[in-house]
């Protein structure tokens, strides 16, 4: 499968982060403004450092973290294949036996009593 380098979040897993812009974080109300050059430089510094730090962090840690998550999901798959699914099959087999035993006990012990009571009360209906 080819890696899509344009749409990197096609399932919107991180849509809650949105597109974080300078104006989403900083805002000066009317009557309280810094010097224009400070505001422009702050805007440039914010964007530069946000992008640079993200790229440095992903360069340094992205592959290691991706490898760790790959191992984690491999462990989950391994655990399901080799432990959880066989446990469910074991329960299914043993519960089936218990269900058959319970059914035989009810049919042997209780069904005659219920049919007798039903026969008695059947006559009250008429």
Automatic annotation (TrEMBL):
Membrane topology of the entry: Peripheral membrane protein
Gene Ontology terms describing biological process: caveola assembly
Assigned GO CC terms: caveola; Golgi membrane
Cross-referenced Pfam families: Caveolin
Entry's localization field: Cell membrane; Golgi apparatus membrane; Membrane, Caveola
Molecular-function GO term, any one: molecular adaptor activity
Keywords: Cell membrane, Golgi apparatus, Membrane
Family, per entry: Belongs to the caveolin family.
Biological role: May act as a scaffolding protein within caveolar membranes. Interacts directly with G-protein alpha subunits and can functionally regulate their activity.
Name of the protein in its database record: Caveolin
Lineage: Eukaryota, Metazoa, Spiralia, Lophotrochozoa, Mollusca
């Amino acid at each position: 499968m080819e890696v899509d380098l344009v749409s990197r979040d096609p399932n919107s897993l991180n849509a809650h982060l949105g597109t974080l812009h300078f104006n989403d974080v900083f805002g000066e109300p009317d009557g309280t403004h810094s010097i224009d050059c400070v505001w422009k430089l702050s805007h440039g510094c914010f964007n530069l450092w946000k992008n640079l730090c993200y790229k440095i962090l992903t360069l340094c840690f992205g592959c290691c973290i991706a490898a760790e998550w790959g191992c984690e999901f491999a462990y989950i798959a391994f655990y399901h294949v080799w432990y959880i699914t066989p446990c469910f099959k074991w329960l299914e087999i043993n519960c089936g036996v218990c269900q058959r035993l319970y059914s035989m006990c009810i049919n042997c012990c209780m069904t005659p009593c219920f049919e007798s009571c039903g026969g008695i009360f059947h006559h009250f209906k008429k």
